[in-house]
Specification:
2 helices, mainly alpha
């Protein structure tokens, strides 16, 4: 079998590309999370009661017992 260093360079570039993709996805998630938190904070400042009610409504639905209709 003949040794060819070009294949090693291809493997290294593929690994670097995968790492770069992971870093880009991670940064995008962090930025989107910061954006969401900033929007919620601004909404809390403008309409605190409505925002808290909107956040707690799904939790209250989960905690209330469901009755089966026959």
């Amino acid at each position: 079998m003949i040794y060819n260093p070009i294949f090693e360079e291809e493997i290294e570039s593929k690994v670097q590309l995968k790492q770069l993709k992971k870093e880009i996805k991670k940064r995008a998630r962090e930025e989107s999370m910061k954006d969401v938190l900033e929007r919620v904070y601004n909404l809390l400042k403008r309409k605190p009661i409505l925002t808290i009610a909107a956040i707690l409504h799904p939790i209250a639905d989960l905690l209330t017992p469901k009755t089966k209709e026959v």
